[in-house]
């Protein structure tokens, strides 16, 4: 047997200092509600991610099913068309029957006359019916072309009847062009005098009155 190993004596490490963080303690004691809200938010985000992945997978399955249905429908249609193409006699019969009866198009039928008269006799009664084309407007019913004729007449009447005020006056020797202006009196221009002009006018009037008074005294 090997000799027993000697165990080294481990000296206990002395803790130099123990610090107590009051802010961390305060945050732990007052943060229960905050941590609860964080866990709820994380759970909601995880649920939203799972729902999104499920929707994507569901849409993928729907697309694959629709694609498979479309391919199956195409195969069925092709299977139905193959026997029809394999029978050449049917097409020949259709072509032969179609060549005999060719379509000549739409035949132009003359419309019945609009403006005409019809006579009806019933025992002792005799009636004449006149059919004419009419135009429908907001004002009522008019004969075809009647409204245009009335407009042309109004335009011609307006052109012929010129207003008297717009007629050009003709000047002659008896009535010259400036005859109306000779009898008119020229209007004087009126304006207000300034303060200096009024003062000068009063001074002139006073000096004139004084001069006349001196002449009367001397005379």
From TrEMBL:
Residues 207-219 have a biased composition (Basic residues). GO terms for cellular component: nucleolus. This is Ribosomal RNA-processing protein 17. It comes from Exophiala aquamarina CBS 119918. One of its GO terms (molecular function) is rRNA binding. Residues 81-126, 138-219 are annotated as: Disordered. It holds the Pfam family Nop25. InterPro entries: Nucleolar_protein_12.
